[in-house]
Write a structure and sequence with these properties.
Layout (H helix, E strand, L loop, with lengths): L6 H8 L7 E2 L3 H9 L3 E3 L7 E3 L1 H8 L35 H21 L10 H5 L1 H11 L15 E4 L6 E4 L3 H13 L2 E7 L6 E7 L3
Antiparallel strand pairs: 1-3, 2-3, 4-5, 5-7, 6-7
Helix pairs in contact: 3-4, 4-6
Amino acid sequence: MTRPLTAAQRRLVDAADPGTGRLRGTPAQLAALVKRGLAFRHPRPPHDHFLTPAGHRIREAEPEPEPAPVKTDGPAPTGVFAARVGGEHPAPEPGPARLREVRGAWQGMLELRRMTNTDGATDRPCGWERAHLVQAAALALEAAGHRPAGADAEGGGYRVRETPQPEAVAVHEPDGEALRACATTLEGAGWQVGEYTEPRTRARYLLASPRRV
């Protein structure tokens, strides 16, 4: 279970720069936030620390009890916020609170792109996304309003899954029109997308990779 923030950690997160997410604190305090996935150390001097998307979400959300861990047939979620990859059981409750979390996580991701891409670009994925492909693609889809699949394998909705290929995820969606809409969203979020046919089932799916240039 994710441990709640200490009072000191909460103060650091709340005091982060509202525009950049820059943090100020002792080395031990900052290292603790990095370990929890709420902050990252910038690779270029002076190596300041900034909030990750999960850190931005913590700062923007109303104080509330930590949610119970979510089990999923996909990869384990990272950090405090986890985008829906499809097939979760139980699924996060839809509604204004969830929409606020997703919106905050996506804005935090764009800020992370700006801070870590060498040219400050926000139109293509950053290193964090390449290291967390399934979560990154799912966040782009959920933030754009696409419906994730439920636990029932027969139901509609997207499912994002790992693939044997490096830096590529598969996006499954039984509805052809919805699948093409997912492709449009991912392309707009900086992913290279191709549509393929599964040889055995003849089902169409997407193969998506983060664009580098």
